[in-house]
Amino acid sequence: MAAYKLLLLPGDGIGPEIMAEAEKLISFLSRAGVASFETEKGLVGGSAYDAHGQAISESDMALAKSADAVLLAAVGGPKWDGVPYEVRPEAGLLRLRKDLALFANLRPAICYPALVDASSLKPDLVDGLDIMIVRELTGGVYFGEPKEITDLGNGQKRGVDTQVYETYEIERIARIAFELARKRSNKVTSSEKANVMKSGLLWREVVTALHAREYSDVQLEHMLADALGMQLVRRPKQFDVIVTDNLFGDLLSDVASMLTGSLGMLPSASLGGEDAATGKRKALYEPCHGSAPDIAGKALANPIAMIGSLVMALRYSFGLIPVADAIDKAIADVLAAGLRTADIAGPNDKPVSTSQMGDAILAELKKTLG
Ligand code: IPM
Ligand code: MG
């Protein structure tokens, strides 16, 4: 039986509650003989700051580097609003992304049939929706230098962030998008602001050239990021794969999440390049949502994005496709049976707790894999 090392980073807020539901599934999969998962736990974000004054410790970074995959829940919260910028909770997440070179962030927005009414859009606009947002994750304005606030000495300050992209960064993320599109509906929408940004102009040029060179079988369109935001809420089913930079990807994936009913539904995979020797990729899996401090500790959180992130790990890191499909089906069945956490509950639903949702998905899965 294959053995895999998983590092679990529950983080802050609702993080530990939703991670607990993923852990139930992981230990079931080990017991059922699907694979043997060796798990370790670490701290990231505010919880790491409280424990050792850093957003992630060196020893947890080392664990992350040696794991086959990292599963992270969420970081941040008002408790750490005043901590120095370098050690704020988000810095732990950004360091993981950067140091593991996880340049490709895959954010699938799928509307489960049972949830068409939970979306903020009309049911016919989202029924059957299946979009993959491919967000560049280690470049752009998140990491570009200079990044600073300088004192101008006249009572004024200047804040600077820098958007930088080089050819290889655009090419490798576009390649991921084209490859994914070939396995889906064969269409890529590349998005930037080429009308106002030099980096956007380069982005469009590089994507166009790569397409002509290697992927002319895939349908490619370019769409300005503002227009794409508008089209996402106007006619979202026109999209298959969307590829965009770090900042636009952050914004557009939050928009897309509401099409699926709730931000609590969207998982993500962050992947590095393929290791030439082993063919493996470094990988981190996390929900797109944040730590929701307002509902932390109240058993209200929706664990589906977290469980969906585990499913993505099974799919992309471990090649356990039938098991991944089985969990996806268990989620769909539980939703079809009417179970709803508060975020996706309609006016007549009686919401279930975080662990009731997790348990129901596990029980459903046992019917297939038990
Ligand atoms: C996300 C989050 C992060 C980001 C935050 C927590 C730093 O919003 O993963 O979308 O901006 O990338
Ligand atoms: Mg975000």
**Form type:** globular
- Oligomer state of the chains in this structure: single chain
State the order of secondary-structure elements, H for helix, E for strand.
Answer: EHEHHEHEHEEEHEHEHEHEEHHH
Q: What ligands can be seen in this structure?
A: 3-isopropylmalic acid, magnesium ion
Overall number of strands: 12
Tally the helices: what do you get?
12
Query: How much beta, percentage-wise?
Result: 15-25%
What's the alpha carbon Rg, rounded to whole Å? Answer: 20 Å
C-alpha end-to-end distance: 17 Å
By CATH, the superfamily of the largest domain comes out as Isopropylmalate Dehydrogenase
Helix coverage percent: 40-55%
Q: Main beta sheet, described? A: 10 strands, mixed
Assigned CATH class of the largest domain:
Alpha Beta
Task: Find the structural class using helix and strand composition.
Answer: alpha/beta
Strand order of the largest sheet: 2-1-3-12-11-4-5-10-8-9
CATH second-level architecture of the largest domain: 3-Layer(aba) Sandwich
Q: What is the mean pLDDT?
A: 97
Number of domains: 2
Poorly predicted residue ranges: none
CATH topology (level 3) name of the largest domain: Isopropylmalate Dehydrogenase
